[in-house]
Amino acid sequence: MSIRSFWKTDNLLNSLVIASYILFVLFSIFDGAIRYFFNEFGLASAIYIPKMLFIALIFFCLFLGKELEKILPIIIVFSIAFIVGILNGQKHGEILLSISIFLPAIFGFVFMRVLKSYWDRLYIFHALCLFFALTGVYVNYYYSFPWYGYRYNIGGIEVSAATAWQAGAFNRLSGFSRASYDVAIQMVALSAIVIAGNVNIFLRGAVILLAFVAIVLTTSKGVLISLFVITLLSLMLSLKLIKSLAFRSISFSFLSVLSIIVVFLPLFSIGLSNRVLDLKSTKTDNIFVSAFTSYSSLGDRMANMWPATVNRIEESNAYIAGLGLGSVGTPRGVYRGDQLSAVDNAPLYLLSIFGGLGLIIFATIPFVSLVMNTSMFFDRSMLFIAAISITYGMFSNIFEVSILPMLLSLSISYVSEKISHRRVS
């Protein structure tokens, strides 16, 4: 039997895809702890195993001629973004790091069908991961983990196992993960999947309550907006008075309005870059109050970060082609120390890298509500993930945050496939 005929069964490929997904999610949940222990045992580079598996599986698919309708457009888009990045003076390290950041999203987009077919069987896994994430934060409230603030060198670059920082008078807890916002988005995304697959309203309420308290402990305020939105959508799905068609229309309108706000929000920051907003937090002995009174990061986005990014785009006339890979976000921060390039707005981040195509990609997110089947667990999960991505994308680079990019790419891939099938039919 030839290699090609063996792989036609799809069993091995599917198993490797699911194993890679599980490994990546686990590495994300325990990112801080894994980085700490791996470095202590001289295995720091092993943290990249999941992403190396992603690359290997994509190349396997190319060899077998599978998922070409997903892979080839990605190759074209990233090739253009690569060339544009080179022309705009991005360093090779910046470009490679940018590609590495997008790997989870690429993997999710390409292998959506496989993950969708196993989604019901992954429910227990997602529930366990939520338990681990919650447990890490609650334990971290009473006990400081050794990886919190731990720094080490890899490839000549100093990185942190888990970021140590504060909001007011309190540490921003990261649990087993690498940063407070990482574990916060993990908890809300995994909570979304758990409540999407459970009809028991009391269990859903308990999950939301536990997630709410844990997210407050991380002081990640933007994630609380996402938790509120998925709670609202979950309640709407529970109301039998709202029929499936009506729910799809309502949710689409709601997410579309939110998307428009997210897209245009950075434009309101124009003109604020020449003055510093005095929105620093007031220190308090109450962590719950501190979580809602720290607005210095919002002031920094409005006064500095967003205007700086918009100015770079305007100076390069990059609204159509973008600035290319490596132009914003972590790559530029690592190689140039440019903290203003973090962007912290999803559509602006995509616009900076991919130009107008980036905005089109972001605009597809709300359409999951139109193509979904409200009775399907996977569809409900994708709706909640879309809602989280839009709301959290208002103040964050969602493509650089833990497991969310992969889950969002599943939603985008699902939408594109549904739309293409409708056109064919």
Protein model, in words:
This protein is mainly alpha-helical and 425 residues long. It has one domain. It is built from 20 helices and four strands. It has helices at residues 3-7, 11-29, 31-40, 49-64, 68-87, 92-110, 112-117, 123-142, 180-196, 201-218, 221-238, 244-264, 287-293, 296-315, 330-336, 346-354, 356-363, 368-371, 377-392, 404-424; strands at 151-154, 157-160, 166-167, 170-171. The strands form two sheets. It has a two-stranded antiparallel sheet with strand order 1-2. It is globular, with a radius of gyration of 21 Å.
Helical proportion, percent range: 55-70%
Number of strands: 4
Mean of pLDDT? 85
* Low-confidence parts: 272-284, 286-295
Percentage beta strand: under 5%
Strand order across the largest sheet: 1-2
Helix and strand sequence:
HHHHHHHHEEEEHHHHHHHHHHHH
Report Rg: 21 Å
Largest sheet: 2 strands, antiparallel
- Tally of contiguous helical segments: 20
Tell me the domain tally: 1
Gross morphology:
globular
C-alpha termini separation: 37 Å
- Please identify the structural class as seen in this structure: mainly alpha
